[in-house]
Amino acid sequence: MLHKENQISSIKIKQVSLLAIILVLAALICFNLALFIPSVLGAITIYVVCRKYNFYLQEERKWKPWASALALMFASLIIIILPIYFIADLLIEKLGNAQAYMQKFNVFIDKIHDFVYSKTNFDILSKENMTKLKDFAGKYSTSALSGTLNTLTVVMSMYFILYFMFEKPRLFERILASAAPLKRSNVSLIGEKMRKLIMANAIGIPVVALGQGIVALVGYFIFGAPSPILLFALTAAASMIPIVGAAIIYVPICIFMIAEGNTGAGLGLGAYCMIVVGLTDNVLRFTLLKKLEDIHPLNTVFGIIMGMKLFGFMGLVFGPILVSFTLLLIQVYRNEFSDDDTPELQLPDKDDELEEKIDLIV
């Protein structure tokens, strides 16, 4: 008897075998179609953002599916894609000449280091650390820009996928729900949480970044910062990083301006950025992002690092979504297979007790 109990049932063997085959095939598909993963993520992101408008046009306004799909695709291109593409294209144009860019960056870092050392006699960056910083900046910026160069291919394939998602949305959602080997409650949980995560990352974070970039741009023009348009793009991109955010850009710029002899302008820009840009960040985050979804800063930090490495500039949005989705799947796994809720099921609710008493009386 004990020997039979310890044996693995044939059903479990079949389940494990089928799961292994599915994982191998999924890995092969992802490996060979890795170029299109950002397209799929982008299509899902825009679908979630425009979902209610698609149902409104098709089911209430009685638009033809193809007309609704094309209208929403065009609107998303104007509102969502073009601002992101503008910033990416600006960064590529300004930083495209990697050798010239690195020469300017090296002069910039040396100037800040020499100024701080002359004023404080504190070697903020040793020669070894400065070399590491320059190498890291060159390697990271080159990889980020090279990952951004295929943006046009990603966008075209993304809209190709998006059209079929928009055309028959009910069928698309039914296929996803039926394909998930999970309880219906967990499928609903994934759907709702992913909607909030995507809305927060695809709308909230870019709006906060764009707002900070525009406010900082005004200050760059007022105080005469070098290359204000480039600094606007860098500030908008850096503001997506939690905790430090836009300060990564404007603090070195202020020090550089002071080192160049523009003490008043450098101090004025520093005060402007800390007060006005910082206030803009706090107001937008505590109003817009809190309403959408409160994402932990560590999710955003590690998501951006991973996303930039995998997807280039578009990883600023997709990276945090993937990290949050992974943590969500862990929660769903616990809900699906954990027995932690067994004691709770043994404790009857007061309403259940009342119903039992009524049944006994009847």
From TrEMBL:
<feature type="transmembrane region" description="Helical">
    <location>
        <begin position="198"/>
        <end position="223"/>
    </location>
</feature>
<feature type="transmembrane region" description="Helical">
    <location>
        <begin position="265"/>
        <end position="284"/>
    </location>
</feature>
<dbReference type="InterPro" id="IPR002549">
    <property type="entry name" value="AI-2E-like"/>
</dbReference>
<protein>
    <submittedName>
        <fullName>Predicted PurR-regulated permease PerM</fullName>
    </submittedName>
</protein>
<feature type="transmembrane region" description="Helical">
    <location>
        <begin position="304"/>
        <end position="330"/>
    </location>
</feature>
<keyword id="KW-0812">Transmembrane</keyword>
<feature type="transmembrane region" description="Helical">
    <location>
        <begin position="69"/>
        <end position="88"/>
    </location>
</feature>
<keyword id="KW-1133">Transmembrane helix</keyword>
<feature type="transmembrane region" description="Helical">
    <location>
        <begin position="20"/>
        <end position="49"/>
    </location>
</feature>
<feature type="transmembrane region" description="Helical">
    <location>
        <begin position="144"/>
        <end position="166"/>
    </location>
</feature>
<dbReference type="Pfam" id="PF01594">
    <property type="entry name" value="AI-2E_transport"/>
</dbReference>
<feature type="transmembrane region" description="Helical">
    <location>
        <begin position="229"/>
        <end position="258"/>
    </location>
</feature>
<comment type="similarity">
    <text>Belongs to the autoinducer-2 exporter (AI-2E) (TC 2.A.86) family.</text>
</comment>
<dbReference type="GO" id="GO:0016020">
    <property type="term" value="C:membrane"/>
</dbReference>
<keyword id="KW-0472">Membrane</keyword>
